[in-house]
Amino acid sequence: MSSPEKWTHPGPDSPPATAAKPTAEQVIAGLRATDEGGADLVQLLTPEGERVHHPDFDIDITAEELRGLYRDMVLVRRVDREANALQRKGQLGIWVPLLGQEAAQIGAGRAMRPDDMAFPSYREHGIAWCRGVKPTDLLGIFRGTDNGTWDPVKHRFHPYTIVIGNQVLNAAGYAMGQKFDGKVGDDDGEATMVFFGDGATSQGDVHEGFVWAAVYDAPLVFFCQNNQWAISEPTERQSRLPLYQRARGYGFPGIRVDGNDVMATLAVTRWALDECRHGNGPILIEAFTYRMDAHTTSDDPSRYRLSDELELWKLKDPIERVKVHLVKQQWADQDFFDSVEAEAEQIAIELRDYCVNLPDPPAERIFSEVYAEGNPVLEAQRDEFLAYHAGFAGGEH
Amino acid sequence: MAAPTMDRPTSAAPAAVQTMTIAKAINNGLRAAMEADPKVIVMGEDVGKLGGVFRITDGLQKDFGEQRVLDTPLAESGIIGTAVGLAIRGYRPVCEIQFEGFIFPGFDQIVSQVAKLHFRTQGRLKLPMVIRVPFGGGIGAVEHHSESPESYFAHTAGLKVVSCSNPADAYWMIQQAIASDDPILFFEPKRRYYEKGEVDTTTAPSPLFQSRVLRTGTDATLVAYGPMVRTALDAAAAAEEEGRSLEVIDLRTLSPLDLPPVYESVRRTGRLVVVSEAPSESSITSEIAAKVQQECFYSLQAPVLRVTGFDTPYPPSKLEEEFLPDLDRVLHAVDRSLAW
After folding, report:
1. Which residues on chain A are in Cβ contact (under 8 Å) with B89?
2. For site-directed labelling of B275, which of A62, A251, B29, B62 has its Cα 20 to 30 A away?
3. B220 and B313 part of one domain
């Protein structure tokens, strides 16, 4: 029997940090203190746009592929900024910005195959884009006209889940179903990916999801976007340990990737999905990134974080480094960048037009599709309400 | 399901009518549903090798395999939450919650996902899942093993809630619930699990969402569900000896409530006593009282009376016979109603 692991609580006498060996304090702080991801961070493209190589997760990427990823990120950011502006103009009740997380989402989303299934939280506008959901289809949730209108079966993109962590268990069950259906075990296999944040890792449902996926060998990639903030609470309020290291306790691999590096995120996620479809799941990916805007349009980050922090992360912008790399490699010219900008502007115009013309649903929508097979008590309540409602239309009130 | 033995038919009944306990009837019903549809899976704690702590799933894993009868990790939110994903994938999960007092870790998934996904997606996702819940007291158990939490679920839009009271209903209602495309909470009267009755395995007694008059009467109406149906029937039999004629209605469905048969009865008898083990405040019995006074206002000869558990935590088991409605408390309420 091995002796118990020695554990020293960090104190003032702790040794200084090195790049390879963070201090205990930094471990406890989720390594935020350095805004670096630590020695285990997988990176293929530096913030300066330099291509670096990784022994395990390198990929070959063509100019066309990288232009595609760039375009995705620019368009998704434009959608996000336009929707944020629509909220400021009173056209949306609330918006949940993804600013800064474009690489994490486009890298992960583009690693998926059509037959794979995605379970988002509520900030996954970039994943929605990759799953073929029109940006306009996201607006109803935030304008208050619906709860999401895309077809989750057709797009293999589950509805947004707002209760933190619920979707992790739903995804684990779906992945179990993929396995029970015999869809796991070779190159043609299916996999599921579930998205959640650093705050969600404290939820029981996420831990239970880890347990279930592990004991059923489910083909599930847990994709945690650690954007450093759960509204006002920093990651050290959720964990002593870097989040990716939690996977070990559940018996599967955990990898921390530079979530602002679209190439690295694509490489790591593609590998993880392939492992899952071959029957080697589950796997946890921690995408180390930063929420550059507020939690939602109702939030005020100036109350809990310093603007210096944002300035630091602006230097790691996920889009800028790809642009630099494309230019350096002569993989894109000004015409390309101009055409992407024009496309982004066109999408923004369509988004605005769609949003301001989105009609309010009729009153009977309150009662529609509560049940698959009806409910006579509810139908009586609806009829009574509609009769009351009709009284106004007839001028009786 | 055990096939009726043709060479040894029971004396008076046709071969399809068998006598069995409620526990065995649910077991047979689950088996029939699993044979009829390969997408039906059973999942819960100890439901496989052990056959469940009440043996309701006895023998199912042996016959259908570990992929259709899942001994799950010990986590109720996990049971419900993964069942949601399996249902979306095309399965029809039947979850067992070992005792009703342990359902609350899964309450979030039930209320936030199970109940709302159909509405959220406007019917694009269906949740054909059943959550089986042994409930109620009377078994001398420790805390969290004797409660009646059904009102929480009846209060939640998107869920349907039913409760069986006898073997024939147990056999058929579980199959009807599994066949439904709506998520259903299936409350099983655990203290009645081993009561026997006849089950006709060829014909369902009635559709799932209908209450049923079990005994006709003229002086007052008793309404009950689950474990209290037996109590109500016993009370009606005792009252008959005193020359009182009580009508007994088994609700069977708690959400949606099927109250027209109750209205029809109360319009004849003019008196209603509602019986339930659950605490009375803001409960299914409150709802019945409210609806009946609205629909039968001019027929009522007395206020609607309720005989229920008290608005306390479930007591230590040495006190549960005081806590639970029994024949005497029901008849006392009938006396008060008749004397109004």
Report:
1. 173-174, 177-178, 181
2. B29
3. yes
